[in-house]
Design a protein that fits this description.
The structure is a homodimer of 411-residue chains.
Chain A lengths: L6 H11 L7 E5 L12 E2 L9 E2 L3 E4 L13 E8 L14 E5 L11 E4 L3 E3 L4 E4 L9 E2 L10 E3 L7 H9 L4 E5 L3 E7 L3 E2 L10 E2 L2 H11 L3 E8 L3 H14 L2 E5 L10 H8 L6 E5 L3 E2 L5 E5 L2 E6 L3 H19 L10 E6 L3 E2 L5 E11 L2 E6 L8 H5 L2 E5 L5 E2 L4 E5 L2
Parallel strand pairs in A: 5-6, 13-16, 13-17, 14-15, 17-21, 19-24, 22-25
Antiparallel strand pairs in A: 1-12, 2-11, 3-10, 4-6, 4-7, 5-9, 8-9, 18-20, 20-21, 22-28, 23-27, 24-25, 24-26, 26-28
């Protein structure tokens, strides 16, 4: 039967078999960059700020002149000018002098500190009373404090967030170099599987996996390509897979990966592999749900055979295919995966020796956030949408105790 | 100066002032439904599964007939048929009888259990040896086990995930009723602010807030509308805000919300408000960063005045505007916000009396995931993109101890 591999072994096999550097690049508008992956380090072309900038409304001074100032003993400085927003000041601050600068304005030469307007008094007599001492550099962002010219602003292989769009805008990047979106093909198999708009007759079921995987790919910034529902026919399956391999970077086939009379995925991979292709790399992963998973390599492209059960197929898509997609894009941020901390509301026994992901729903009771396992027979579809996430149970653990703190992964 | 409100007070004000039921609805293709918000409860139109379905490859039996079976003492049942995938069986299972059914196939009438093929032996003599007892309902998903006709499949005001697309496909929904995407306008203000493609002269800075907010709105499924950079001119500002209010559901203005001579947002809101408009509802929130935030109400639409500093503006966008957007869409899942559990690598003092969100970067050291606060002067832009998230420090806390476990919110 299966020569079952652990998740870690599978990750190693993926890493060793697929070229991560093969993705071509393109330049896109900053407006379109959300969620795209940078294809190179992006450097600052200039110092930011490009001038010494005030971070408050107030007076530019030499800090030394304000030492010892207080409400009762103010320092009295001569007002020598006012800086307008966005303008370059054409005067300097000497000892005993001050000039008004608004938030974001440039500090005149000679000044090294800003006193907030709240700590000053202006009697319109050409002088300004300073009521509080200010330290050198106080309330000032110095030239280059934010980022220096030729420093890396955003690293290569980084998924662009709104915050990153901001720093790219600050540095004047209208166009961003990114990796091309991967194209991934989706094939559903099974004689019993019919289209979403079909009227069900006999023992048919509608195609669920195409849609969960389609949504999952979109969420990861991938172009999904739908190849429809393929009956359990070796010839059609083979031709469809060959077509998908020509048009896509990887192909996901759901259904037909358990040991049964109908199972074509394995046969088709072996049938179309050329002498130089590795063919089937993995058949079976020691993970619940989703054990009967296939990973193949044809023409340097990945072919995944996902379980037919929708909950298992989607789960393996997130855990295994998701890892492949991140690896292809050079993203390695597993330690930054968010989760929700909850209290488990039951005792849950688990089989040691196989890691398990337990689907749970999350609810709040008396101010405490709790998780309730979603029990249900294997193969239920509603399990998928009733789950808020999954609790990971290590292969060495025999279960989880009621009332224990657990992390729910949002998958 | 400010009549500063707590975050909770601000949430109450938003909830009490903006009509959540005003969003119109539309029907969209299931393929386009990821991230959209359902506009009504979506019911199952049928029983799922619509038949008693096998979840294994094996033999349909009366469980009673298998009781006591073992390797050494198998039960011997008469093979009366084979069910093909997707077909309706036209025979029944009587006492002492069995029929082959593949995974996903329909169980014939009379059978109440499936025996996995691994626990059977077939000597091709018209009989099948059962090597293990099976319980009633074992390996069978009964009609309606997944969902019953007229049961709610997806609730109203639910953000559609890939999993939800799956259940909608299973139930035959090609088109999904969703709330119209909100249109939200973005206005940047400030005489010193120039476009991303501008060559910087004097003390100018490029427009950052338009892009962080644009990306943030996209991420929340909102249509952003960019109104560009408005100089600190009362007339232009007023006309732009009026135009944006006509075209959008809400308007976000960044810059100009602190107490200073340039501050127009407050004046413009007050100037354009009609007698029936509430005008300024909030001016100042007791939250760091982002204290000088304005919330106004004109023509039943929200106007947010965000701080000018990019890090503060984006932060208030996520915490306050994000809450407004969720409230408008009827989403209330704050207890499902994921975070990353880390060890804080420094002592961090905080001002009691004001809640604080401390930006941190996350890294792994000796197998431990840690957070390092991003220190830096107020107004730095790189703070934004260097942060992986924020640690929330309650208003009653005086700080956080080095080595303590903290949750990092991914914002």
């Amino acid at each position: 039967m299966f020569n079952v591999k652990s998740r870690t072994e599978v990750f190693e096999i993926i890493k060793n078999n697929f070229t991560m550097e093969s993705i071509s690049t393109e330049k896109i508008s900053l407006y379109d960059s959300l969620g795209r992956i940078t294809s190179q380090d992006i450097f600052s072309k200039e110092n930011l700020p490009s001038f010494n900038r005030s971070s408050v409304d107030g007076y530019a001074v030499k800090a030394f002149d304000t030492f010892g100032s207080s409400d009762s003993v103010p320092s009295i400085l001569k007002l020598v000018g006012e800086v307008m927003m966005g303008d370059k000041p054409h005067f300097t601050i000497g000892s005993g002098e001050a000039a008004y600068v608004p938030t974001g304005g440039e500090i005149p030469q000679g000044a090294d500190s800003m006193v907030m307007i709240e700590y000053t008094e202006d009697y319109s007599d050409g002088f300004i009373n300073i009521l509080k001492a200010s330290s050198p550099g106080g309330n000032v962002v110095m030239l280059g404090d934010d980022i220096l010219a030729n420093e890396i602003a955003i690293k290569a292989s980084h998924k662009i967030r709104p915050q990153d769009m901001g720093i790219l805008a600050a540095l004047g990047y209208e166009e961003i170099p990114v990796k091309r979106r991967l194209n991934i093909g989706i094939i559903s198999t099974g004689d019993e599987v019919v289209a979403v708009n079909a009227k069900i007759t006999g023992a048919q079921v509608r195609d669920v996996n195409t849609f969960t995987i389609y949504g999952g790919l979109l969420e990861m910034g991938i172009n999904p390509r739908v190849y429809g529902i393929i009956k359990d026919d070796f010839g059609i399956m083979k031709n469809t897979l060959l077509k998908a391999l020509d048009e896509c970077d990887a192909v996901l086939i759901s259904g037909g990966s358990s040991v049964g009379t109908r199972d074509q995925t394995l046969n088709v991979i072996e049938a179309i592999k050329r002498p130089e292709d590795a063919g089937v790399l993995v058949h079976g992963i020691a993970i619940k749900p989703g054990k009967p998973t296939i990973i193949g390599k044809i023409k340097d492209k990945a072919v995944f055979g996902l379980p037919g059960h929708p909950a298992s197929a989607y789960f393996i898509f997130k855990i295994i295919v998701g890892w492949y997609i991140n690896a292809m894009n050079g993203i390695d941020d597993a330690h930054k995966t968010p989760s929700i901390q909850v209290i488990l509301d039951v005792n849950y026994p688990s089989n040691a020796g196989r890691e398990e992901y337990l689907p749970v729903s999350i609810y709040k009771e008396n101010g405490i956030t709790k998780a309730k396992p979603i029990f249900g027979k294997s193969g239920l579809i509603t399990t998928l949408s009733r789950a808020d996430g999954y609790i990971h149970i290590d292969r060495n653990k025999e279960g989880l105790a009621m009332g224990s703190k657990v992390n729910v992964l949002i998958i």
